[in-house]
Structure formats: structure tokens, C-alpha cells
Amino acid sequence: MITSLPNLLSLSRIAAIPVLLGLFFLDGELARWVAGAIFFVACLTDFLDGYFARVRRQQTDLGRLLDPIADKLLVAATIFMLVAFDRVTGLAILPAMVILCREIVVSGLREFLAGLSISMPVTRLTKWKTAIQMAAIGVLLIGDAGPVFIPMVEIGEVGLWIAAALTFITGYNYLRASAKHLTGAGVAPKSRAVKEAKPANPLG
Predict the structure, then answer these.
(1) Which are the contacts of 34, defined by CB distance < 8 A and separation ≥ 6?
(2) Cβ neighbours of 53 (radius 10 Å)
(3) pLDDT(32) > 90
(4) What is the homologous superfamily of the domain 5-186 according to CATH?
């Protein structure tokens, strides 16, 4: 049900994207702090939608679709704008691109495996990658508007490099785990599982 709390939280992340992007066109430190706050709240909803879905037993196919879409749209759009407005420059663009490419590849893998009724569980390392990635992006959104005694841009860029390194590891793990299905080796077991799950004909 689209009006369930978990789905509304996922939709709120998507709704926050145009507001967040619009703040890039406003000058002043206040706009940067507001953008950082919006991004932080959006990241918080990423945790809350999964939590409420489990607690309220409102896990649905729609929710499983909306959650990763909202996450990837938020991350991709924000990184794109950070690069476009020269808040991420030089070599720091490389980890940003690695993160974006990984999101595209993993999204494709998930969609392909979903067609085979195979799930890709989120590992603990992936959760760490996501947390560091979100923290780095949030710090970069504030950037030079932060306290003068804290090197916000440098901290954010280091966070991007760490997230990119974890992205390589988790991306490789996903590819390795799904390799047999990509080559077709995983299709036959699925077909057998479907056949075994078919209820017996009561009429004999």
C-alpha cells in the first residue's frame, strides 16, 4: 500500500531531491547548511522506512522497489550537483564516479536477479559503505560554510575515497555471488523450485 508509513518515508526522499538541488543555486552559507540538514533527514528516513516496515510488518514489493530507487536517486543527483558546482574537484571526482557506476551496476544486477526470484542480501560491509558515503556527501554539501577550524572539504573527500574503496569490494562480492546466475547456471534450480512449490491437484 503506497500510503503506508515506510512507503511514505521512501517517497519523502524522492520529494526532497528537487528541494535539495534547488539549494545549489542559492548563495550563502545558510543554503549549504539547509541542504546538509535536508540530506541528513533524508538519510535518516532510509533507516526508518526499513525499521517501520519490519516492526509493522509492512514489507511489500512496492516498498522493496521504492527504497533502493529513492536511495540511488538521492545519491546520484547530489553527487552530480556537487561535481557540477565545483564542490568536488580534481582527483576527488574519481571516487564520485566509482560510486555512481557501482550504483548503476548493482541496480542492474538486482533487477536481473529479481527476475529469477533471487535476492541480494545487504551485507554489513555494504552498510558501512553506505554510512561513510552518506556522511561524506553531507559534509561536502556544507563544505566551506562549516567551522573554519574543521577542514570540511578535505574530510568529505577522504570519506569519498574510503566509500569508493568499499564500493570496489562490495561490488566485486556482488558480481562474484551472482556470476553463476549471469551465466545461466542458476536458472535450472529456480525452475525446479517453482515446480516443487506447485500445489498438488486435489482431483488426482
Answers:
(1) 23
(2) 21
(3) yes
(4) CDP-alcohol phosphotransferase transmembrane (TM) domain (1.20.120.1760)
CA 146 to mean position of chain CA atoms: 25
**Per-residue pLDDT band at 115 (split at 50, 70, 90):** low
Residue burial 100-115, b: 16+ Cβ < 10 Å; e: rest: bebbeebeebbeebee
Ranges of each domain in the chain: 5-186
pTM given for the model: 0.79
Give me the pLDDT at residue 101, please: 85
Residue 60: partners with Cβ closer than 8 Å, 6 or more residues away:
1, 4, 7, 53
90: left (phi over 0), alpha (psi -120 to 50) or beta: left
